[in-house]
Write a structure and sequence with these properties.
single chain; alpha/beta; Lyase, Ornithine Decarboxylase, Chain A, domain 1; TIM Barrel; 2 domains; 9-stranded mixed beta sheet; 8-stranded parallel barrel; 21 strands; amino-acid biosynthesis; Diaminopimelate decarboxylase; EC 4.1.1.20; decarboxylase
Length: 447
């Protein structure tokens, strides 16, 4: 496993993160356990801030869907970034963390009336409107509330990103945005400009996630600026903001080749500026939405090894006490991860095994065919780069409680998400009175 951030191997041969021995973390807090490297999370935020905000005056908004807790909100705020939320629940979390609402962008392809009302009451900085239905509803709601909604329109630029089919979003056949090519986008802009309670500020696109080829971003920026020029010619309106989404890829396993954030910023800004000059337009304020590239590398998940099953000549399965319940990504779209045996981090690899989860599904496999030191029950397995889309996509399949999460820095570990209990699993369960009555009757009959 590639070490990154504050990871190191201590004198006991154990993996250490943020100055904390991961074997001790597992003993103290139990497993599965999400571990967030605070210093690396902050460092990733600062890298974006330097590359985009300090150098170009662009705005960086953290994509909360990748990892969101009250403590994470505080880190993002302290590092000077805005926040992209996509649901009432994410917005509520930001509200409870007292995150500045002026720096919140509200995304989502099917916002409910209640969510829009909550966002209007909170006075979020921008609504990223996905479709005409939402635009009409937002205009009506804002009117009823004697307010005005600050809007960016999400468009579909028709750019094919080089990534997994499930995380492409910029192609024409997408559930997101108004398509440029067929005229929907232009109609949406004209409609927004006519509305009394909508203040249209700019345009938005997002082409996908886990992207390594920066030319995809340059192409998307060019398409968006060409469209901005067409809009200016037909309506006289010039977008003052251009949100180009996020999606920069990170290292998960061998073969991944992430690009430096500074290079990503230079490519985007060069493309926007060149197109602005070509069309005689002012350079809009650029906005980017990194998520995975901030939270992903900062997260590690610790598991305890249980059953070891060797099928001679076929495969050796090593089962851990978590799996698709705390990390559904391998089951959803064949995501790859690296890992090490945290209590044998300095030991050489001796065997090739496959890491199985404990859910009652054949597809609950975390890692296929990984070389590790000899693995035994009770060992602690550390899977790296699990900060993005792990906790946020976790579930209670098989009635498994979600893991705890700790924030580590300078030898200190603080709980930021408590471990769910079995009682938590039943908290919202209700037995209707008619079933209670039928049980009493059945008991009485049995007597």
């Amino acid at each position: 496993m590639m070490l990154h951030g504050t990871m190191t191997i201590n004198s006991r041969g154990h993996l250490e993160i943020g100055g904390c021995d991961t074997v001790q973390l597992a003993s103290t807090f139990g497993t599965p356990l999400y571990v967030v490297d605070e210093e690396l999370f902050r460092q990733n935020c600062r890298e974006y801030y330097r590359a985009f905000t300090e150098k170009y005056g662009a705005e960086v908004i953290y994509a909360a869907k990748t990892l969101l807790t009250l403590a994470i909100c505080r880190l993002v705020e302290e590092e000077g970034l805005g926040m992209d939320v996509v649901s009432g629940g994410e917005l509520y979390t930001a509200l409870q963390a007292k995150f500045p609402m002026s720096r919140v962008y509200f995304h989502g392809n099917n916002k409910s009336r209640e969510e829009l009302r909550l966002a209007l009451e909170a006075r979020v900085g921008r609504f990223v409107v996905d479709n005409l239905y939402e635009l009409e509803m937002l205009n009506q709601l804002a009117g009823e509330m004697h307010s005005r909604a600050d809007v960016i329109l999400r468009l579909t630029p028709g750019v094919e990103a080089h990534t997994h089919e499930y995380i492409k979003t910029g192609q024409i056949d997408s559930k997101f945005g108004l398509v440029i090519e067929n005229g929907q986008a232009l109609s949406g802009v004209k409609l927004a400009l006519e509305m009394d309670h909508i203040a249209l500020h700019g345009l938005h696109c997002h082409i996908g996630s886990q992207i390594f080829k920066l030319d995809s971003y340059a192409h998307a920026a060019g398409v968006m600026m060409d469209f901005a020029a067409r809009v200016a010619r037909e309506t006289g309106w010039v977008p003052s903001e251009l949100d180009l989404g996020g999606g920069l890829g990170i290292y998960y396993a061998e073969g991944d080749q992430p690009r430096p954030v500074a290079e990503y910023a230079d490519v985007i800004m060069r493309a926007v500026r060149e197109k602005a000059m070509t069309h005689g337009l002012p350079v809009p304020r650029v906005i980017v939405e990194p998520g995975r590239s901030i939270s992903g590398p900062a997260g590690t998940t610790l598991y305890t090894v249980g059953a070891v099953k060797d099928i001679p000549g076929v495969r050796k399965y090593v089962a851990v006490d978590g799996g698709m319940g705390d990390n559904p990504r391998p089951a959803l779209y064949q995501s790859r991860y690296e890992a090490c045996v945290a209590n044998k981090a300095a030991a050489p690899a001796e065997e090739v095994v496959s890491i199985a989860g404990k859910c009652c599904e054949s597809g609950d496999m975390l890692i296929w065919d990984i070389a590790l030191p000899r693995v035994e029950p009770g060992d602690i397995l550390a899977v790296s780069c699990t900060g993005a889309y792990n906790y946020s996509m976790s579930m209670n399949y098989n009635r498994l409680p979600r893991p705890a999460m700790v924030l580590v820095k300078d030898g200190r570990a603080d709980i930021i998400v408590e471990r769910e209990t079995y009682a938590d699993l039943l908290r919202n369960d209700v037995i209707p009175e008619r079933l209670r009555k039928s049980r009493r009757l059945n008991v009485a009959s049995a007597r």
